Amino acid sequence: MSRGKKHTAEQIISKLREASERIGEAEPRLKRLLADAELDKSILKEAASGNF
Fold first, then answer.
1. pLDDT in tens, 16-41
2. How far apart are the first and last CA of the chain?
């Protein structure tokens, strides 16, 4: 069974840094999406209980 192409330590480090940067860029957007979803959930829960 072939394990695929071997990568150098430098290539692995480069890919990890690139992935980390992408995660850092996406984090504020994900936090905003989560906050919006939580707000929607709260509104729906309140509407379903009749407390509006």
1. 999 999 999 999 999 999 999 999 99
2. 62
24 contacts 30 by C-beta, under 8 angstroms: no
Side-chain-side CA neighbours of residue 45 (13 Å): 6
Q: Residue 1: pLDDT above 60?
A: no
Decide: 19 and 25 in contact? Cβ < 8 Å. no
How far is it, in rounded angstroms, from Cα 23 to Cα 19? 6
Map residue 3 onto helix, strand or coil.
coil
Distance CA 5, CA 12 (A): 12
Phi first, then psi, for residue 8 (nearest 5°) are -80, 160
How confident is the model at residue 5, as a pLDDT?
A: 82
